[in-house]
Amino acid sequence: MFDYGERIEKARVEMDRQGIDLLLSVGADLPYLTGHEAMALERLTMLVLPIEGDPTLFVPELEAARVTPGPFQLRPWKETEDPLGLVAAAATGETAAIGDQTWSVFLLGLVERLPGVRFSSATPVTRPLRAVKEPGEVEALQAAAAAADRVVNRLRGDRFEGRSEVELAGLVARLMVEEGHDQAWSEIIASGPNGASPHHEPGPRLIGPGDLVVVDFGGKVEGYLSDCTRTFTVGSPTDHHREVHAAVLAAQEAAKAAASPGVPAEEVDRAARAVITEAGYGPYFIHRTGHGIGLEGHEHPYLVEGNGEVLQPGMCFSIEPGIYLPGRFGVRIEDIVTVGSGGIRSLNDSDRSLLEVS
Ligand code: ZN
Ligand code: ZN
Ligand code: ZN
Questions:
Q1: If you measure from the C-alpha of residue 218 to the centroid of ligand 3, how many angstroms do you get, rounded to a whole number?
Q2: Does the predicted model carry a pTM greater than 0.85?
Q3: How many whole angstroms separate alpha carbon 352 and alpha carbon 358?
Q4: Element (H, E) at 345
Q5: Which residues make up the environment of ion ligand 2, defined by Cβ < 5 Å?
Q6: Each residue of 278-290: pLDDT tens digit?
Q7: For residue 6, how many other CB atoms are within 10 A of its CB?
């Protein structure tokens, strides 16, 4: 479906530009360049991509059956072989860029075996490629977002009261798969005062009448992630709930209006933050406005003060302002958007209002 040979050639152009002889890829760079997603294991999987000559994908022998052939040589290694020695023997050059998610035990082993090589991060090589999505990648993200919207719609018809957060998380995970995700990836269910913690881990708390419930979830479609947040109210909301929700929604709309090609990422954060500050809740918006999304749930570009990176057509990211009132409740609204030539297009289109459930 994706042209890995073309991506490898683009990576080589970047390597050449940046004076990198060798790219050692793990993490999400690996499926980006080869289509193969490795488990993060003590057994090494690594793509060795020299600036010239064939790339080689080293995989544990027991994983080799999962690899779809591509524009690389496959080198399965046996349990009794030394994979770092094999990688080191294939490594040619003086400068090696290595994936950020390489386990330190692997990097330390390579540093020892390749004393003449200068190591740097692979992100400067892969970031400009991965941040601007190909049309096929936007399609996969769109399919994932549409599946997430269907989950929101089904939740609206469901009962929250009397269920624990963990139970609701299980339901959300099941609905994600039923609605077209290949797998569920994460579910945050933060009810009542737990909503004030943006990354709350679902727990035993029973959801009760009058609670606001922040539901933030995502799953994979063809390796690409959805990430969607809606805030539900169990029964009618209070005036305070409505006021806070309205401020978050207005902040999200302002951020969407500010996001277009040529605009620095931090401007989008400023637009959302200005609305929330104006409403009097500035100190309670305790995270950046959004993050890039693709093969990873959080990737470049990050919409945060200090990031002057300019938005380009093809970039895809979340816009997810929130207000978190300690001991009381929280509200967040999150959509995935893609940058087009004239502005952004939201990949999510489910109802963003405070969603009333029983
Ligand atoms: Zn988050
Ligand atoms: Zn999220
Ligand atoms: Zn997110």
A1: 9
A2: yes
A3: 18
A4: strand 344-346
A5: 216, 227, 334
A6: 999 999 999 999 9
A7: 11
